[in-house]
Design a protein that fits this description.
Elements: E1 6-14, E2 17-24, E3 28-33, E4 39-42, H1 43-46, E5 47-53, E6 56-64, E7 78-87, H2 90-105, E8 112-117, H3 126-140, E9 144-149, H4 155-161, E10 170-174, H5 177-183, H6 187-195, H7 203-212, E11 215-225, E12 228-232, E13 235-239, H8 240-247, H9 257-268, E14 273-281, E15 290-292, E16 319-323, E17 328-332, E18 354-359, H10 364-373, E19 385-400, E20 409-412, E21 415-419, E22 437-449
Parallel strand pairs: 8-9, 8-10
Antiparallel strand pairs: 1-2, 1-7, 2-3, 3-4, 5-6, 6-7, 11-12, 11-22, 13-17, 13-20, 14-16, 14-19, 15-16, 17-18, 18-19, 19-22, 20-21
Helix pairs in contact: 3-7, 8-9, 9-10
GO biological process, one term: sphingosine biosynthetic process
GO molecular function: ATP binding; lipid kinase activity
Protein name: DAGKc domain-containing protein
C-alpha cells in the first residue's frame, strides 16, 4: 500500500528539542523526536481541536484510559492529554493551523449545539457534571454552546417550540431520559449507544462521541389517544415496572437504592391488572397471543404544526391479542432501560419494531428472580415472560384484580403518561387519561449522535 499523501510537514521544537510534525491526507498526525519513538494520533478519533498560544500550537487530544484506571471524580473511557510544539516561523505556524483546521472541518463535526441542563437530573448533579465534564470538552473542540437550564417538566419542549433549532447542529440533554423525550437522548439511551461499542455509560464517553460527529438513526414511537400524541424514544410501561418507577419517588431520599427497595415491596404485595394488549407482530412472532380484529383509530385530519406520527396502513394484516390479568407490560425501543437494566436484549435502534415484554401469572419468588436477571438480560428467557417484536400496539388498561375501584399508572420514558383512579398522586393532571391508547412506529425518524460502530 502506497504511503498517504502528506498535507503538511514542518521542522519544529518539541520540549525545546528539534523534531518534526506531519499531517497526512488520511488524517494521521505524527510527531517525530530525535532518539524517541514516533507518536501518532488519528485526527478523527484522537484530536478534539487546537489552539495557538503565542508562538506555540497546542493540539488538544484524548487518549483511552487503561483498563481499571479511573482518573478524576467522574471517570470515563478517555483522558485529556495535550501535545505542544513550536514552529520555526509565523508562516509555518499559520500554514500548519490552516491545514489542520481544514481537515477538522472536513470531518463534519458539530459546530453549534443547543444544550439543555436539568438541575434536578442526574441525582441533582447535572449542572456539576456539565461544568466539570461536558463543557470543557466542547470548548476544547471549539464548539459553540447555547446553554438553557430547564425549570420544570416539559420546559424544554416549550423552549424548543419557540426557537429556530435549524441553526444548531444538534441538541444535547444533560439530565435523565425525561428531558430527552421533551426535545427528543438519557441514561437508558446513552447506555444503549455506548455499551454496543464497549464504552462506559458516562458523560466523558458520551461527550466525545458527540464531538466526533458520527450519527445513527433511531425509531420513534407515536403514542396516540384521540388527538393527543406523545412521541417516545425509549419505553412504555404499565403494571409492576411503571408502579416501581413512579411510586418509588416517595423514597427518593434513599438514592438509587429506592428502586430495589420498592421493587421488593411491590413484589411482596403483588398487584395484577385486568386489561388487554393488542399488537401487530413482526415477522417470526405471529404465534404469540390469539387472533383478533382491530383497526387503528385515526382522528379526522386537522391542520397543526409539527410532526403528527407515521401514516399507518395496517387494515389488511392480522392483529393478535393477549388478555389479562397482567403483572407487567413493557415496550422498549432500545436494549437498555437504565445503566444496569438490559430490558430488551434483542432491541435495535432502527429496525422499525418495538420489543414487547409481557409478564403474567408469575409466582412471587420467580418474579423476584426475574428482577435480578434484568441486569444481564436473561429475564426474557423465563417461561413466565413473553418476549416478542411488534410493529404496532394497543393497550386497554384495566383495574386491579383485587381492587376493582383502583387503577394503575402508564409510564412513558420515565414520565407519567396516565394515572388511573386511586393511584399515586392521582390528583395530578396527566397528558392522557387511563384508557385505551395505541402506538405506531416510524422507522429511523430521529437522528442521534453516536459512537462509530
Amino acid at each position: 500500500m502506497a504511503p498517504a499523501e502528506v498535507i503538511v510537514v514542518d521542522l519544529v521544537l518539541i520540549d525545546g528539542e528539534l523534531g518534526m510534525v506531519k499531517l497526512t491526507a488520511n488524517g494521521v498526525l505524527e510527531a517525530i523526536e530525535y532518539g524517541e519513538p514516533s507518536r501518532y494520533w488519528t485526527v478523527k478519533k484522537d484530536v478534539l481541536g487546537f489552539v495557538v498560544e503565542g508562538k506555540y500550537i497546542r493540539i488538544k487530544t484524548v487518549v483511552e484510559r487503561e483498563e481499571g484506571i479511573c482518573c478524576g471524580e467522574f471517570g470515563g473511557d478517555y483522558s485529556r492529554k495535550d501535545f505542544v510544539f513550536e514552529p520555526f516561523s509565523e508562516d509555518a505556524k499559520n500554514r500548519f493551523c490552516f491545514k489542520l483546521r481544514h481537515y477538522l472541518d472536513s470531518l463534519g463535526r458539530p459546530k453549534r449545539l443547543l444544550v439543555f441542563v436539568n438541575p434536578f437530573g442526574g441525582k441533582k448533579s447535572a449542572i456539576k457534571i456539565f461544568e466539570k465534564e461536558v463543557k470543557p470538552l466542547f470548548e476544547d473542540a471549539d464548539i459553540q454552546l447555547d446553554v438553557q437550564e430547564t425549570k420544570y417538566q416539559l420546559h424544554a419542549k416549550e423552549m424548543v417550540r419557540s426557537m429556530d433549532v435549524s441553526k444548531y447542529d444538534g441538541i444535547v440533554c444533560v439530565s435523565g431520559d425525561g428531558v430527552l423525550v421533551e426535545v427528543r437522548t438519557g441514561n437508558g439511551m446513552i447506555k444503549s449507544l455506548l455499551d454496543a461499542v464497549g464504552l462506559q455509560c458516562c458523560a466523558n464517553s458520551a461527550t466525545i462521541s458527540i464531538i466526533r460527529g458520527h450519527t445513527r438513526s433511531l425509531d420513534v414511537a407515536t403514542i396516540s389517544q384521540g388527538n393527543t400524541k406523545f412521541f417516545s424514544v425509549l419505553m412504555l410501561a404499565w403494571g409492576l415496572v411503571a408502579d416501581i418507577d413512579i411510586e418509588s419517588e416517595k423514597f427518593r431520599w434513599m438514592g438509587s437504592a429506592r428502586m430495589d427497595f420498592y421493587a421488593i415491596q411491590r413484589i411482596i404485595s403483588l398487584r395484577q391488572y385486568n386489561g388487554r394488549v393488542l399488537f401487530l407482530p413482526a415477522p417470526g412472532f405471529e404465534s404469540y397471543g390469539q387472533p383478533t380484529s382491530y383497526r387503528l383509530h385515526k382522528e379526522p385530519p386537522v391542520k397543526v404544526l409539527g410532526y403528527q406520527g407515521p401514516d399507518t396502513k395496517f387494515e389488511d394484516v392480522e392483529w393478535r391479542e393477549i388478555k389479562g390479568p397482567f403483572v407487567s407490560v413493557w415496550l422498549h425501543n432500545v436494549p437498555w432501560g437504565a445503566e444496569n437494566n438490559l430490558v430488551a436484549p434483542a432491541a435495535k435502534f432502527s429496525d422499525g419494531f418495538l420489543d414487547l415484554i409481557v409478564v403474567k401469572n408469575c409466582p412471587k419468588l420467580a418474579l423476584l428472580s426475574l428482577m435480578t436477571q434484568i441486569s444481564e438480560g436473561t429475564h426474557v428467557q423465563s417461561p413466565y415472560v413473553a418476549y416478542l417484536k411488534v410493529k404496532a400496539f394497543a393497550l386497554e388498561p384495566g383495574a386491579l384484580v383485587d381492587e376493582p375501584d383502583k387503577e394503575g399508572i402508564i409510564d412513558a420514558d420515565g414520565e407519567v403518561l396516565a394515572r388511573g383512579r386511586r393511584t399515586y398522586k392521582c390528583e395530578q393532571i396527566a397528558l392522557m387519561s387511563y384508557d385505551k391508547l395505541q402506538i405506531t412506529v416510524d422507522q429511523g425518524l430521529a437522528t442521534l449522535f453516536s459512537p462509530e460502530y
